Amino acid sequence: MADARASGGWFRLRLLDRYVLALTLRPMLMSLGVVLTALLLERVLRLVDMLATAGAPIILVVSLSTNLIPHYLGFALPAGFALGIFSAVSRLSLGAELEAMLASGVSIQSVLRPLVALGCILSLISILVVGYLAPYCRYAYRDIINSSVAYAWRAHAPAATFISVKDGLTITADEVDKTGRQLKGVFIQNRDQGADVVTSSVAGTLELTPDKTQIQLKLHNGVVVRDYGAARPSTLRFQELVLDKKFDLQAPPFRPRGGNERELTLSELWSEMNSPMPSSPLNELQAEFHSRLARSLSLPFLPLLIVPLSMTMRRNARVGNAAASAVLMVLFHNALQIGQTFAHKGIGWAPLDCWAPFFVYVAFALWLYRTSTDRPGDTVVSRALDRVRRVIESLTRRVGARLQAAKS
């Protein structure tokens, strides 16, 4: 309290606060970008494959990826914040700045204060993104999938690519012109009235129907083979054939938002939870509501966990503490995910399933911080790592001595 009064209160940014925040924000933003890109990259590759298979424009991957950013930001934000804190405090320790500050009477709380304040700001941002923006983006993502992949075929057939369209129809062509409408070497496979139907033709044309509401495929110089399982399949040769299946230019309007609890905002989830006739099972609504809040509210307590583990000048200890920090973060977020899964399946009481990992995490972070302020850099985690390292070194020496004795 004395330190806070001397500095003019908790809401005034001192020179030290600005310095700590500057050291934290740059690596945090860089690592946030790296983590977010890594999370999106694997999904983008799957989206490109899905769009190409459906014959949809590949450019749609931009819209789909943009709508995925709020979802992945909820996972990337804690990781980026943790890396920023570890980088900033480690830099203070390695440059002997932390020792100089402690020697001059500046407490660890002075370093922690701006980081906790930043965690509170990031927590509010996380609530806005995960609680309100992500549901709308998730609905927009599913709307794009419905209109461009699941329902309508855009009448663009990439060459040498099997396109799966509605009614179990598979189409491919050896050559396609720049418009995607003139095809050569067309092959079509589908199932009709219990028979496997294969249609091949020298050429084909995608064109509008006479009423200009649908797309039809007109084939030239080909053959239709129907296999009913008999000894000899039925064969029909044609000079010109219009495929009996038509393709809509546009998909019908997508369902209203809210068909899934993950498309509801926090306010809407709260209203549904207190509704006499909720749109989804109560346990599913509670699981989504409490898990979002627990994940977002964990950010202000993250400095309590990371700061003690980053206050060390030994290189080996720093690497070990960084690995321990990553493991603890992964354990916490996996525990939150497991709790959400249990709550979603109705196993136990949903608020307890979602908040129990949060309170264990907060209690451990507070205990780790309180037991490390007297001797910065000396924590129960670092001592455990030192014991493990000594055991490994002892075993290595014994094995080396035995091998040396066996050689002599």
TrEMBL record:
Cellular component terms per the entry's GO annotation: ATP-binding cassette (ABC) transporter complex
Transmembrane portions of the chain: 20-41, 48-69, 75-94, 115-134, 323-343, 349-369
GO biological process: lipopolysaccharide transport
Compartments, record wording: Cell membrane
Membrane topology of this protein: Multi-pass membrane protein
This protein's name: Lipopolysaccharide export system permease protein
Keywords: Cell membrane, Membrane, Transmembrane, Transmembrane helix
